[in-house]
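Weekly sync notes, structure subgroup
Attendees: PM, AL, DS (notes)

Item 1: joint prediction request from the bench team. They want all two components modeled as one assembly rather than separately. Inputs as received:
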Amino acid sequence: MYVNTVIALDAMGGDNAPFEIVKGAVEAVSQYDIKLILIGKENLIQDELKKYSFEHNKIEVVHANEIISNDESPTTAIRKKKDSSVVVGLNLVKEGKAMAFVSAGSTGAILTGSTFIIGRIRGIERPALATVLPNTKGFSFLIDCGANVDSKPTYLVQFAKMGAVYVENILGIKNPRVGLLNIGAEKEKGNTLTKEAYELLEQEKDIHFIGNIEARDVSLGGCDVVVADAFAGNVLLKATEGVSQAVFSIIKTELMSSTVSKIGALILKKSFKNIKQKMDYSEYGGAPFLGLKSLVVKAHGSSDAKAIKNAIRQCVDFINSDIVAKIEQNIQVDVENEK
Amino acid sequence: MYVNTVIALDAMGGDNAPFEIVKGAVEAVSQYDIKLILIGKENLIQDELKKYSFEHNKIEVVHANEIISNDESPTTAIRKKKDSSVVVGLNLVKEGKAMAFVSAGSTGAILTGSTFIIGRIRGIERPALATVLPNTKGFSFLIDCGANVDSKPTYLVQFAKMGAVYVENILGIKNPRVGLLNIGAEKEKGNTLTKEAYELLEQEKDIHFIGNIEARDVSLGGCDVVVADAFAGNVLLKATEGVSQAVFSIIKTELMSSTVSKIGALILKKSFKNIKQKMDYSEYGGAPFLGLKSLVVKAHGSSDAKAIKNAIRQCVDFINSDIVAKIEQNIQVDVENEK
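Output from the run, pasted for the record:
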């Protein structure tokens, strides 16, 4: 059997490594026509692999002796830990031995390492981290949610273009509505960055820019792509996580407070399960880091096997849709125009 | 009867003016030892007042012929509409005829008019809009949530001090924990603004600075005062409103989807009412605009009589606690130090 699609997977990153990572890898190769390269401490990975039966030519293990933890300085760690699972994995992509890299490890190290080792698409000033956010009508796609603070207006235009390409091709929304995260709906609202970015976005013919969007309207499904500087984007992302967690915690306390409410809660057990499932965005994979010459996916630190499998599927879709080439085309036009 | 505390109330601002505003005013004078000056179209206000019985020397009506709407440019409106309820009300405060001003009208006009007409406390570079945010343990106080975008680090230090004074004296939390809204817990995280503000906040002896706080931890009650630039603060505020609304909407849809879930929902009707009440922060009054020579409170545009009454009680507490003098003391120290 000859397999075209090869994906590198950090077996040591995240809270549940290597157990859940290896399990997710085995599930992925049984479902998709891919080959995975698992990177990390070989003996630990092999011990996990022994638990499962799978097509052995679809999983390769590459040893890496070091692990980068969340509390290390990303720049120092990437420079010094040449034999870490992150650096080894990114190098496999750089050398063309893998087409994408997935890790549930340190976000900072993955971002720094990716830009440094894999490199940016020509014309992209800053790659951006993106994620899906649940809303009442489904999901919207937030870019940037954690890579570039103190962004320039041109970065935001590039985020908008990359976001639109991703959403159209991977999430299947035709002509996605692009909104600029802001603190008012009117054009003249916001800070210096958003005012300048608005002017530029308005002139872009190839995206469906619908103007400013307030955080409240993001939750109500007001647009498909939410463009933001990473500071505001990260506040929005973490507020979304925090508030939904807080609301469910307040509900739980209240429902456990009397016998009657406990009975009600029991009756609604299945309903609450459905609600949690609706709001679970691990179905959509991890957070893609867009604007690089290859795809890098940051899976949530608490990823289980299912989340890892979905992050791998996300890579397969990304590679099949040739997103990098499509982003290049979109951005390249600008580079041409600037000549 | 001689009443010391006089509060000016915009009878024309908000979605439910003048009906709910006048009703709230009547309730307030029956509960507190105050005098209210209702500002707006005299005939409309008098028609409303006729519906109630109250001590007539506790409510005075001052006619103002114009109304500033939400879609007018604040600066132009404040300059041109000299006979608007907002401008007339703020002038009453400036002239010492009232000690505070409450309005559910245009936020922009209230902010612009307040700074322009009432003026800043000496040493305060920018007054800030603040609000309470619900969390799993109660409430935290967010400052700035809408007045100053593109803040300088020194503004944030002043927000922290004003917030701490307010929370200690009005919300009754001793030595309140002050957190800097950021996208990571570590000192070196964030953008240029938060990094510089962190350095300054760390040196402040008179506030209990606990470092950076992420939006997620705000929802979980991680601190009492959340300090932010108005852009990030407003994203946090509107995300909090939007996400809770979205979660309840998703729950409602799910609970109405089957007969069994409808029965469960019926049993839990009272519980859900309790939950909504727990998360209703209109109990705490409106959004105070701090750093001015007198208090100005922005009540929510959709305020009902109860919300207006609570905004008035908030003014009474503010005046009784002499918050302006306490902020002056705190800031004055700095002015002295700088000499």
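Discussion: Residues 33 and 90 of chain A are 22 Å apart (CA to CA).
Action: AL to compare against the crosslinking data before next sync.
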